[in-house]
Automatic annotation (TrEMBL):
It holds the Pfam family IclR_C. Transmembrane segments: none annotated. Coiled coil: none annotated. Residues 10-71 form the HTH iclR-type domain. InterPro entries: GAF-like_dom_sf, HTH_MetabolicPath_Reg, Tscrpt_reg_IclR_C, Tscrpt_reg_IclR_N, WH-like_DNA-bd_sf, WH_DNA-bd_sf. One of its GO terms (molecular function) is DNA-binding transcription factor activity. It comes from the Bacteria. This is IclR family transcriptional regulator. The keyword Cell wall biogenesis/degradation does not apply. GO terms for biological process: negative regulation of DNA-templated transcription. Keywords: DNA-binding, Transcription, Transcription regulation.
């Protein structure tokens, strides 16, 4: 469970991070008691820490005594190299794909056993999209997630395959089926989903490579269905991913 990183005698910084870590994609807004439980901290300690974090802008307090992550934390997060480097270098290529398709485009990286969305250009409002910049979603039921999982270390793959969660009736929850899809993603160079994260949305994604071999991110697109346009979309994503990889290599060589 998110946030359960506290131990008796932990430092103030450790306890503060336990409070911040209590938030995740499924828990964007929490009460004080929920924060206390998820951070594994006494209620009085949580109350004191939350008051300080609100004063510093790290948390925001809303009506009915609920708290959310504050803008200051988000602003600091944008300074992380994975954001400022990869996101900025990839931005022109995402805009190229968006201009050609008018569909939602994603840039994402793996964060443990989840996919972290670094950037998103919003497309057709008729296609249901649950991702937002800075959010995390399961690896096994998103196009970008499957690509990243296909190239993840074996222990990460084993952990994900051992705890598959159904999100929609079409989510792949068979370890054997998903393992076969990951093999195919490695072989074909792309991964797809169909109604697995949200009904009415299909996706296709390709890896972004650094130095030609190291998978550092995934580039994906979400549409209503892939039957007619899969080949065209994969081709466009590959060109863009190759461009991102090229500028990453150039930036590293400077």
């Amino acid at each position: 469970m998110a946030g359960r990183v506290s131990t008796p005698g932990a430092s103030v910084v450790g306890r503060a991070f336990a409070v911040l870590g209590a938030f995740d994609e499924q828990h964007r807004s929490l009460t004080l008691s929920e924060l206390s439980r998820r951070a594994a901290l006494p209620l009085a300690t949580t109350h004191r820490l939350v008051a300080e974090l609100v004063g510093l802008g790290a948390l925001d307090r809303h009506g009915a005594g609920r708290y959310t992550i504050g803008r200051r934390v988000w602003g600091i997060g944008l300074l992380a190299p994975v954001q400022t480097g990869l996101r900025e270098l990839a931005s022109p290529f995402l805009h190229d794909i968006f201009a050609a398709t008018r569909a939602t485009v994603h840039l994402a990286v793996r964060d443990g056993t989840e996919v972290l969305y670094l950037d998103r250009l919003s497309g057709s409002a008729s296609v249901p999209i649950v991702s937002r910049v800075g959010t995390r979603l399961p690896l096994h039921c998103t196009g970008v997630g499957k690509v990243l999982l296909a190239h993840a270390p074996r222990d990460v793959v084993a952990e994900v395959l051992g705890s598959l969660r159904r999100v929609t009736p079409y989510t792949i929850v068979s370890a054997d089926v998903l393992a076969a899809q990951l093999d195919r993603a490695r072989r074909d160079g792309y991964a797809t989903t169909a109604d697995e994260m949200s009904i009415g949305a299909s996706s296709v994604a390709v890896p972004v490579l650094r130095h030609g071999t190291e998978v550092v991110a995934a580039l994906g697109i979400v549409v209503a269905q892939l039957r007619r346009d899969r080949r065209r979309l994969v081709a466009g994503l590959r060109v863009a991913a190759q461009g991102i990889g090229r500028v990453l290599d150039q930036a590293a060589a400077r």
